Amino acid sequence: MRRLKKLSKSHSVTGTGENDATAAATTTAAEAAVSDTNGGGNIATNTPKETLLNVDIFKHFDKTGRSEFLKYLKLQLQDSSESPVFDRNGVFKHGISNAIYELLWQALRYKLKKDVVLHVLTDVVALHKEFPSLILDVVNILDSETSLMTDGLQEERHGFVQIVKDLDKVLPESLLKERLEIDTLQEVGIVKNKSFYTKFIKVKTKLYYKQRRFNLFREESEGFAKLITEMNQDFEEHTTPDTIMDIIKSLIGCFNLDPNRVLDIIIESFETRPDRWKLFIPLLRSYMPTGAIICEVLGYKFCHFKAARTPRSLYHVCALLLKHGVIELNDIYVWLTPNDGSIRADWEQELADAREMVRKLHVISTNKKEDDKEPPPPPTTKKFDEEKYNTNQKFGLCEALLKVGDWENAHKIIQKLPDQSVVVQEPIARAIVELVHLTVEQVYYKKCFKAPSGRKPSRSRLYEDTSLVAKMQARNFNELRKYTWPMANVLGPSMHCDTVLMYKLVRIMVKILLEMGVDSLNGPPPNTEAEQHYYDIISCLDASILPSLLYLDSNCSMSEEIWAVLKFYPYHLRYSMYARWKNDSYQLHPNLIRRCGLGQRDIKALMKRVSKENVKPLGRVVGKYSHCAPGLLFDYILVQIQMYDNLIGPVCDLLKYLTALSFDCLGYCIIESLTMTGRGRFKDDGTSLSLWLQSLASFCGTIYKKYSIEMSGLLQYVANQLKSQKSLDLLVLREIVHKMAGVESCEEMTNDQLQALCGGEQLRGEAGYFSQVRNTKKSSNRLKEALANNDLAVTLCLLMAQQKHCVIYRETAAHSHLKLVGSLYDQCQDALVQFGTFLGSSYSVDEYVERLPSIITMLREYHINTDVAFFLARPMFTHQINQKYDQLRKADPNAKKLTTTQKLQKYLDATQLIMNPIVESVRPLHSAKVWEDISPQFLVTFWSLSMYDLHVPNEIYQREIGKLKQLAQQAADGKDSNQSKNKKEQERYIALMEKLNDERKKQHEHVDKILQRLQEQKDGWFLLRSAKSAKNDTITQFLQLCLFPRCTFTALDALYCAKFVQTIHNLKTANFSTLLCYDRLFCDITYSVTSCTEGEATRYGRFLCAMLETVMRWHADQAVFNKECANYPGFVTKFRVSNQFSEANDHVGYENYRHVCHKWHYKITKAIVFCLDSKDFMQIRNALIILMRILPHYPVLSKLAQIIERKVDKVREEEKTKRPDLFAIASSYIGQLKQKTPHMFKESDFHQVAERPVKETAPTLPGSAVKVLTNDKATLSTSTTTPAPIAKPSSASSFYSNEQKTNSKEQDVKAGQIAKPVKVEGTSTSASVSKSVSAPSTSERESKRETTQSIASNRSLDVKDELQSITNANNNNNSSSNGSQTERRSRELERERDRERDREREREREERHSLSSTRSSQRDNSRNNNNKERTEAEQQQRARERTQRLEEIEAATLRAQKREKATRRDERSQHRHDGVETVDLVAGNTNSSQDQRHYEEYEGRHRDRDLSSVSNESNGSLQHRRSHETIDYEKDSKRRKLESSSSSSKKVEELVDSVKKARGLKTKERNKDKLSDEERDARKDRKLGRKRDRNEESSSSDHKRRREAQNGDDDLRERDRHREKSSRERSHDKFDRERGGGSSRGDDRQYSLSKSTRSSRINY
Fold first, then answer.
1. To 10 degrees, what angle do helices 1488-1502 and 1545-1570 make?
2. 3-class SS string, 1465-1531
3. Is 1133 within 8 Å of 1147 (Cβ atoms)?
């Protein structure tokens, strides 16, 4: 019916529309009916869509429509013949009902006749027995629809009434009366009685709503009395509930008793005798099968006691009824008070009160008056409120349920209320404890603890219920999972009320874990019962055992028992339990919140009193606190340590009374403190790590060494941080390794300590560290085991190595300070070195080799750099070689008779067998071009050796042995009463001395073997290709691949690099130039210093100091130099393919070596000054650090020391308030430098300085021998005479002299001297050309032409000749003009010579002109006349330009100085590593202005270029620059002379002409000197041809071209003058100016930018 009503609601019945509209509406209604009746669209879509009746059949209903209609209905019945409404699946079918509905609507709208419709319905009724009911359902819907028609639409209602009147012909009348509404029946006329409706209402009211009345007085009290007597009598044993039930029935029937009152009396009788529950429970179940009625009776009873205390007997009876299933918990729960919302609100209020109390504890009153008394401290826990508990019927019922053993219903009540709000009630907690005791009783006394013979059984009523005992008591460990663990988890912290139960459970847990065979490293097999027990124990510990410990004061034994369980679990599970225990457990109970608040107050008061004097008494108090709440204690202690690092020592002593559980919890608290968010790990300035992190790391190292705490968690934390590319926590690892293993990562070691580290393990422990390595054996083993158990040893090494090279790019932000970036890089480096050292010293070599991957695996798979990979793999090499050596020696049949030589050969064979695979494996790491310069064997040899292999620190061994002897003597002479102790000490010292002696002897033997091995291998280290490239490529590869990476790795590696270079030199290694190596290292350290971090700068400074130590040792004593350097290949200056160096002049002499040392000191000064002037923090700091490190050997020259001191003092003043760290370093350095000032050398003491002869004539150029080997083995050498006698053979002449000790005749004789010829070597030809050229005849063009030819020939450099040139330049700096009279006389002589040259040039020009005129007179006489006129015009024009030319001379000089500094940086990068310099210059031969422009461009490019090696400088370019500097000085002197005098313009013009003529003459004379006879003849022929061609042209056009070239050169100079200088140029300008300003006249050299001394800087 309802479904059809839904169908009708969706159908529109307004008006009489068209048939199409009706059909559409019908279809829509049918679809809606399908959706509604089938429960929505989802069901409809899952069933086949039914075919609805086509409404078109009603149009021809009289013909074929009737038959089609009946056919449709029959078709619908085929699906299910049982019901026309539902199909076989029980889904409603709306097709039939919809068809009948449409048929009746056709009659209501009078489209079909009523009789036709009734006939059709008659046929329909005959189809199925349920069709009458279905038709009436449709009629009811039509009744509802037509009754709702508004006025004016009554035709449908009238038609409906007419059809219903005649329906009795089709349907039974009784069915119509039953199904149709009363109003419809009356309207139709089926019910004709008008009072029918009134009677119907009266009957309905009487039947359903009228209450029956009972006369209570009719019930006789005798019946109730008899009932009470029967229910409370002593029942006999054979009495059954059925017997009592019969009596009750008889009494009810006899005395007409109310059954509900009888039920109440039965329940009350049950309350008085609950022990007879076996009788009453079946009685109540048989008397009242429906439990709801019993609950109502009980509910009325509970409501009666709502305001008063509910009797326990009622709870007990209710609990028994619930336990045995007579009633349901939900039925009785609604009658209990208070409601759940009130209980929840009270619980939250208690928690809030507890938190408020804790908050007030930490409030400090600032306006407290003296009269106010301090309030009494709040109680630790709030007392149990029994009255409030008694008013809560739900708590009482839960307690009763637990006491009768009904855990299931009690657990339901607990779950309905807030967590822990029920079990926190003490009676309920004790009831649960009794139940848990029951469950574990049998297992505990059977498996864990043997029960004593006289043990009495428990008095609990629970044990009387045998069925309950059998149900809940566990007989083995597997059954504990059913009741014991769930009840213990629900009990939570309330288990503290019974510590006996806690002991029982903990011991059961231990027994279970022991039987499982698990430990902290091996867990149970997965998917087994053992695994379930494993995690059940964790849950119980987490939920109950550990939180209950917070209530127990100073229960040390319980803490140890709990640790006995926890130690079977890995650290990550333990730490997860500690986290919840420390952070969440104390929030469960209000009393726990109060206890923890008071505990924190006491801990704060305790920490305020900590000092070194009261460690012991306070330590006991700390131990008591740690037993119950270690997390709260350690949190506050760690906070204090992070703020005050001086508490680390006392706190570590305080913790000696802790239990193992407390120590383990401390390990977790440390990690939690490290990971705590909200704190910055850097200081506010962003340049260094925070102090709290440093303090915490120091505490970690101290506490882990002092106490046995598992450190797997901390080590794994550091590894995880490295995986996340965070290296800050490496500070913790460094402290742990330092404190526990005694391995320091300190870079501030003394030289003695570094020397001690070169020895064996015993010497390192005795003298290699600041703190004595004692008592670290146990702690070192603990650290070793922790790393091994978690496989973290190699993992940490590889992670640190990888992090070291990505810390700069991944860990720091783009805006991070460079100081911080460098600090992180250094920390990663130091931690790696320290950790690798620890592994190498703690692990046996076999263990080390087994754990560490091979060197190739590290290089290729793990992408570890060479320095780190060899550092880790280095301990393996010696071990493997020794093993192989033992095998080879034992395999020899004459093993016992082997000689020393044979043993050595065996050792070399073993070395070759072990190292050859490594040599071959490193070959693919670099390109083939690299191996052309150095061999892979050399690379592996360099990286595989250490300082232990090359050097025996005999002095340190002897010193330590002396100390031990003295201590042994003191112990022997001791007057202490304990003689046995003194004797033991003496024996220990003697044993140490023996160990040191044995170790020294063993190291001596080892070093000898290594040196023999190197002696065998040295010939294959550097290949022959190096001889052709003058060793530059070899040195470059050696520096790049070997020295630079390793010298900044560790301080010991820095010493090793210096020692290795010295070893190569001492071995007389072929094709290796020691001099070039030192020169490349010292010549420009600017970039090396700038790119270093602080730690790398320290190590680089140590390396430079060690190198300078060797250099200065050779410099100090000629005998030492001759012994160690004189005939060594490393000091060869001429390199031949044949490697023959038998000639004496092939080597650098002692004095030349001292000059080179002076150059190196100057270069270091220049680089340091640049860094100090840069204003960059990194450069300044690194420069100061390196200065501190090399202070023993630099500076040693007083002038350089003054420069350095001024610069450092300037830095100190500037950084005093800006950067205090730089100020501190600078102040320290200046203090140490001043102490060294009295020991400084003068320059004349440092190297030989030439005497200064007097020159009355014009200055002469120095003589220097330049030797260049070309590719064709041909050598061209040019030498010039020296102008003055030389005091010592090694000194060079100077440019100018201020003393007048010789006359002009002597100078003429000197000018005619001829320099010693130099041999020219080659394979096919050998020529020696020597020409003497005086200084006045040497010109600018000669120098330029010589340089162009020497460079363009692409020839190699002769180092010896260059050194000679350097010597000359150094000596030239010592002489300058300081007498005005001598200067004027020289200038006058120079002017006279210039005039003579001008006259000769004019005569020569006239002769050439007359000759050309004669030859061309026949061609064109008029052209000659014009040429003469133009020549005169040219002379006039030249006179006008002379005055302008004077101004340009000065401007050109200034511009040249600017250009020379502007190109320093470009030329340095271009020629830094070139073995042979190549400069493309175009020498003009017709235009002096073009020559000047080329010279200035070339000079600007090469003036201050980086001469990082001796071989990088061409002798030709040296001579070229010296010649040009002479010309520049001459021009400058002439300019000053002309400006100061008042000479006429004629003299000025003559001076300008003389300068031009001098240039032309010098060029010619120099070309004549350099050419052979055949070449000069050929050149003359070419000149004559060119002269004939030039004479044909106009001389004026020649002058025009020269003027255009001059103008172009002036434009170029003007552009250069306006170019801005770089910072490096400005720094060098400052340096040169200060050197010039600080120098004095006389014996000291002048370092200034003047023309007279610029030659020195060029040579350098």
1. 70
2. HHHHHHHCCCCCCCCCCCCCCCCHHHHHHHHHHHHHHHCCCCCCCHHHCCHHHHHHHHHHHHHHHHH
3. yes
What does R_g of the chain's alpha carbons equal in angstroms?
57
Single-letter amino acid, residue 238: H
What's the token pair of residue 491? 């009990």
CB 219 within 8 A of CB 257: yes
- Asked whether 39 and 6 are in contact (CB, 8 A), the reply is no
Q: Letter for the amino acid at 478?
A: N
Q: How many residues does the chain have?
A: 1660
b/e code 1000-1030 from CB counts within 10 Å (16+ = b): beebeebeebbebbbeebbeebbbeebbebb
> Which residues make Cβ contacts (< 8 Å) with residue 1024, sequence separation at least 6?
1071, 1137
Give how far Cα 899 sits from Cα of 89, 894, 905, 1058, 1542, Å: 107, 10, 10, 34, 93
Count CB-CB contacts under 10 A for residue 975.
6
Classified as helix, coil or strand, 549 is helix
Which one-letter DSSP state was computed for residue 1053? H
Apex 168 CA angle, 163 and 173, nearest 5: 130
Closest CA to 1257 of 1208, 1206, 1307, 1189: 1307
Q: Are 1163 and 1656 in contact (CB under 8 A)?
A: no
Tens-digit pLDDT profile for residues 572-621:
999 999 999 988 888 888 888 888 888 888 888 888 888 888 888 888 88
**1132, β-bridge pairs:** 1147
Distance between first and last Cα of the chain: 117
- The one-letter amino acid code at 32 reads A
- CB of 1460 closer than 8 Å to CB of 1452: no
* Ranges of the chain whose pLDDT falls below 50: 1-49, 217, 371, 1026-1028, 1030, 1136-1145, 1253-1382, 1418, 1422, 1465, 1467-1527, 1538, 1540-1544, 1605-1606, 1608-1609, 1611-1620, 1635-1660
Query: What CA–CA distance (Å, rounded) separates 978 from 991?
Result: 20
- Residues of the chain by 3-state class (helix, strand, coil), percent to 5: 70, 0, 30
416: left (phi over 0), alpha (psi -120 to 50) or beta: alpha
439-459 as b/e, with b when 16 or more CB fall inside 10 Å?
bbbebbeebbeeeeeeeeeee
d(CA 1211, CA 638): 41
Distance of alpha carbon 1449 from alpha carbon 1313, whole angstroms:
33
Inter-residue contact 1261 to 1308 (CB < 8 Å): no
Dihedral angle computed from the Cα positions of residues 1294, 1296, 1298 and 1304, in that order, rounded to the nearest 10 degrees: 110
Per residue in 5-22, pLDDT tens? 333 333 333 333 333 333
- DSSP tag of 217: G
Class of residue 699 by CB neighbours under 10 A (exposed 0-12, middle 13-18, buried 19+): buried
Residue 681 sits at φ, ψ, to 5 deg, of -90, -5
What's the 3-state SS for 490-541? HHHHHHHHCHHHHHHHHHHHHHHHHHHCCCCCCCCCCCCHHHHHHHHHHHHH
> Which pLDDT value is given to residue 1449?
73
Residue 1259 preceded by cis peptide, ω within 30? no
In Å, what is the CA distance from 235 to each residue of 273, 814, 853? 11, 94, 88
Q: Which two tokens stand for residue 1044?
A: 């630079």
Beta bridge partners of residue 877, listed in sequence order: none
Angle between helices 95-108 and 2-9 (to 10 degrees): 60
Q: DSSP string of 57-72?
A: GGTTIIIIIHHHHHHH
- The CA distance from 151 to 611, in Å, is 105
